[in-house]
């Protein structure tokens, strides 16, 4: 499997989650072969690949240091290891806020720290995690329950993110804006996932309600600002970010705010995009080879 593009997943999803079924054919259409592989499969020649593209490596959060060490060992990794290291800890949100990006208000609660509980509904989630696993939504009169959840995160060695819950998510969900090679490609909506939703069959992420959308101008402008800020913080040109997903929501005051920036292994919503999206991804991969 040398001199090919490797699309990397995990053992429980060895050929991805199905969203990217059209990507290998799109790569073939631009003259590049592709194989699905598992990141911790020692039989794979990652060093001999043209490009190694992180996709659904969704078991990394329980093995982050091992995963990062593997990333550092792969010469042609996209996105690159320094980006992965920064982006797999949600404390990156405070870096983006410091760069002037409007984010959902976020308080970092390290182990041993007791927060001042908000007087509005709020969310607690681990700084290292994905797919909404470990995230909980609490009412202001549920502090004891929230404290137990925080204790569980702290006992696991996790710093927690404490954020006021934005009620617009219940009616509007989130808007995920996808960038390929630093250029906007498409967007899709994600429904609320903190109200008792169940995980998918793999147990790696909470099942989502997805739909196609056209983002409003405020969301587009914010997503572009996020991309510029992230590239600046990472010392990269935007085109060096092979893929990115910018998750935006409308805050209760009506403004667009960043919920998360996904630069490591995001689902890119090809199932909700126009038919040209996999070809745009293939073109971005081919350009990255240069």
UniProtKB/TrEMBL annotation:
UniProt-listed InterPro entries: ATP-grasp, DcsG_Biosynth_Enzyme
Residue ranges occupied by any ATP-grasp domain in the UniProt entry: 93-290
Gene Ontology molecular function: ATP binding; metal ion binding
Record bears the keyword Aminoacyl-tRNA synthetase: no
SUPFAM superfamilies: Glutathione synthetase ATP-binding domain-like
Keyword annotations of the record: ATP-binding, Nucleotide-binding
Name assigned to this protein: ATP-grasp domain-containing protein
């Amino acid at each position: 499997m040398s001199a090919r593009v490797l699309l990397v997943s995990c053992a429980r999803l060895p050929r991805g989650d199905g969203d990217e079924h059209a990507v290998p054919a799109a790569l073939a259409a631009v003259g590049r072969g592709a194989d699905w592989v598992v990141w911790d499969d020692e039989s794979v020649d990652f060093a001999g690949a043209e490009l190694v593209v992180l996709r659904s490596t969704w078991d990394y959060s329980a093995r982050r240091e091992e995963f990062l060490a593997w990333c550092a060992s792969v010469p042609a990794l996209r996105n690159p290891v320094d980006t992965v290291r920064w982006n797999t800890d949600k404390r990156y949100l405070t870096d983006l806020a410091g760069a002037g990006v409007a984010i959902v208000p976020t308080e970092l609660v390290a182990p041993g720290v007791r927060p001042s509980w908000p007087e509005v509904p709020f969310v607690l989630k681990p700084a290292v995690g994905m797919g909404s696993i470990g995230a909980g939504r609490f009412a202001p009169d549920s502090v004891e329950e929230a404290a137990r959840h925080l204790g569980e995160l702290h006992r696991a060695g996790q710093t927690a993110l404490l954020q006021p819950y934005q009620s617009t998510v219940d009616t509007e969900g989130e808007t995920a804006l996808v960038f390929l090679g630093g250029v906007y490609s498409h967007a899709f909506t994600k429904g609320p996932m903190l109200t008792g939703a169940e995980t998918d069959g793999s147990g790696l992420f909470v099942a989502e309600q997805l739909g196609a959308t056209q983002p409003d101008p405020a969301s587009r402008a914010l997503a572009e600002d996020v991309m510029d800020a992230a590239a600046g913080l990472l010392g990269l040109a935007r085109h060096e970010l092979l893929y990115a997903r910018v998750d935006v929501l409308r805050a209760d005051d009506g403004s667009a705010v960043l919920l998360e920036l996904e630069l490591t292994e995001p689902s890119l919503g090809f199932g909700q995009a126009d038919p040209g999206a996999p070809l745009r991804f293939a073109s971005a991969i081919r350009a990255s080879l240069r």
